[in-house]
Amino acid sequence: xxxLPTNTQMFSWESFDEDVSSMVDSSAITVSGLxxxxxxxxxxxxxxxxxxxxxxxxxxxxxxGGELPTLIVQSTGHAVHVFINGQLSGSGYGTREDRRFxxxxxxxxxxxxxxxALLSVAVGLPNVGGHFETWNTGILGPIALHGLDQGNxxxxxxxxxxxxxxxxxxxxxASPNGISSVEWMQTALVVQKLQPLTWHKTYFNxxxxxxxxxxxxxxxxxxxxxxxGQSIGRYWIASATGxxxxxxxxxxxxxxxxxIS
Length: 261
Known about the structure:
The structure is a single chain. With 261 residues, the protein is mainly β. 3% of the residues lie in helices and 34% in strands. It has two domains: 22-165, Galactose-binding domain-like (Jelly Rolls, Sandwich); 171-236, no CATH class. It contains two helices and 15 strands. The chain has a six-stranded antiparallel β-sheet with strand order 2-11-3-8-5-6. Strands 7-4-9-10 form a four-stranded antiparallel β-sheet, with no helix packed on it. A three-stranded antiparallel β-sheet has the order 12-1-13, with no helix packed on it. A hairpin with a 2-residue loop joins strand 9 (143-148) and strand 10 (151-154). The relative contact order is 0.23. Keywords: Glycosidase, Hydrolase.
């Protein structure tokens, strides 16, 4: 297979940052304990928010120059973004071989009530084979805070609020009909910032001819792509590691054909 550039010019890029300051709406549910992700989302979104709060006394040692407490999150995959009081604190990922992982990171809490929001991301599940229906995903715990004056704090059975999906999904930003519902900002994709939830859009003229088309996502991270409101799939750029001079990662040749209209 030979991939040739189309020389199609893309117009300027515009971006919109997902609002993570007030993601809870009337559809949210609150229960004690951690719920399995697909049972909550019903596969309507890759994303599920797990939200709880923690009260911190003003006498805690870490507020007076001590070491920050550590948040430990055990996830069944595939990724998690951790937000503390609306600010990104860190991210964790599983692998193709083992989607389960443990996120461990320091958290900058403040005196008073702190909101911990975990955005769990599920990127597809098995749909063939024996007992594939028993696979779980999401954050099933345990979840704990270590390093507080009173010792370790288990958060697994606190009251958790669950919100399905992103606001941009609810506003249908991927559709031409929903694009105008927010204010987009002129941007350059090369700008790096501490924000994992950003929508990007641009326009381009369809190339001439009827050959299959592909989008080269090199330089991007992880996300989904829509053209004219139709999803053409997810992407997650990862580099192979190790010494494998004779490996062929292409596998069986296949094409995703998409008519751009």
